[in-house]
Design a protein that fits this description.
Layout lengths: L1 H34 L4 E7 L6 E12 L2 E5 L4 E6 L6 E2 L4 E6 L1 H29 L5 H26 L2 E3 L4 E6 L6 E2 L4 E7 L2 E7 L1 H6 L6 E5 L5 E9 L10 E6 L13 E10 L4 E4 L10 E7 L2 E13 L2 E5 L7 E3 L12 E5 L5
Parallel strand pairs: 1-21
Antiparallel strand pairs: 1-20, 2-11, 2-15, 3-10, 4-6, 4-9, 5-8, 6-7, 8-10, 11-14, 12-13, 12-15, 13-14, 16-19, 17-18, 18-19
Helix pairs in contact: 2-3
Length: about 350
């Protein structure tokens, strides 16, 4: 009897324990699952703190702002060239010397005529003072002397045209003649450029429509030199050449481009548009594009939601405002699994990934 009673009591106790254990186990499992949820694995990228720019790259050529073609003013033979192509020249320097024997002979003859009529006038003045010749004869001598002087002056001026001098300090860009060549009046001799320089860029119409216009910033990088900041100075109104391109001109500050020479190539970067915000993130970091935009800043293994307004997007980066704190990192993967305060395991994104 006693043994049966203990058996029944033991069975009841075992059953009650099993029921209690069954009731407690689901709660323990839920608590364990909640405490052991693994962090979300994300790749992160640093926030850029420089403005974005939408740019176009071209190759330009250094050219003088002022160009003058010197042409022959008299007929003759090129006796000598006073400078080589690319050589700087001072104002007044002889560039081309012509040999013009006909002019030289004419000057010699007119000089003799001038000497004769000058002596004749002087003689008639002395005779007229003594009454030996009439005033009419004296007047005729004076007119003849004046005419001879004028003819000589004109011939000497024309003889002076056999020396073509540089009208300003500059650089010899191109010779159009060579020594020993016979030239006629109006024939081109030499192309001369001034000291001020600019960069000329042939631009296609499509890129003009994209935003290349007068006043936009541009950056010039010459051979073996740093980058110069300038702006578009002029855009040709019509296309030229076989490529139907528009000539775009950019001024070069004298002190900045002192070592540049006409004809040298220059890399040109046109800045079509620049972001106004001071920060940018990878485009992949933007979440909720249809409901307003935000990013997830990663701070000490925790995701922090940061609401932003997006702007210019260039090459996989987009400008944002307001700017996050300096040195911030943003998540660029698994954004759909993130929310404010979620724990994350972050891996820095490698360049180009």
């Amino acid at each position: 009897m006693t043994r049966n009673t203990w058996s029944r009591d033991g069975a009841r106790f075992a059953l009650a324990g099993a029921i209690l254990l069954a009731a407690l186990l689901p709660g323990c499992k839920r608590e364990s699952a909640e405490t052991k949820t693994p962090p979300v694995a994300v790749r992160i990228a640093p926030v850029r703190t420089v403005p974005l720019q939408r740019t176009l790259d071209y190759l330009g050529t250094v050219a003088p702002v002022r160009q003058v073609m010197l042409a022959a003013r008299v007929q003759g033979t090129v006796a000598g060239l006073g400078a080589e192509e690319g050589e700087p020249v001072a104002e007044g320097r002889d560039l081309a010397v012509l040999h013009a024997p006909d002019l030289e002979a004419a000057v010699a003859r007119l000089r003799a005529d001038h000497d004769y009529w000058s002596r004749r006038r002087d003689e008639d003045e002395g005779l007229a003072a003594r009454g030996a010749v009439s005033q009419d004869q004296l007047a005729a001598s004076e007119r003849a002397s004046a005419a001879a002087a004028a003819a000589l002056a004109e011939a000497e001026a024309r003889l002076g045209w056999t020396r073509e001098r540089s009208p300003f300090a500059g650089t010899v860009l191109e010779w159009r003649v060579e020594a020993g060549q016979h030239v006629l009046p109006g024939q081109a001799l030499v192309l001369l450029g001034g000291m001020e320089i600019e960069v000329e860029v042939p631009v296609v119409a499509e890129d003009l429509r994209a935003g290349i216009e007068v006043g936009i910033p541009a950056f010039l990088t010459g051979p073996e030199s740093g980058t110069i900041t300038t702006a578009v100075d002029e855009v040709a109104p019509a296309a030229t050449g076989r490529g139907r391109t528009f000539a775009v001109t950019l001024r070069v500050p004298a002190e900045a481009g002192a070592d540049w020479r006409p004809g040298e190539p220059v890399r040109v970067r046109f800045a079509l548009e620049e972001s106004t915000g001071g920060a940018a993130v990878p485009s992949r970091a933007i979440a909720g594009r249809t409901e307003g935009n935000w990013i997830f800043l990663i701070e000490d293994g925790i995701a922090r939601r940061w609401k932003v307004t997006t702007g210019l997007e260039v090459d996989g980066w987009v400008s944002i405002a307001p700017a996050p704190p300096q040195g911030s990192f943003v998540a660029v993967t698994n954004l759909d699994r993130l929310s404010d305060g979620v724990a994350v395991f972050s891996v820095t994104q490698e360049a180009g990934s």
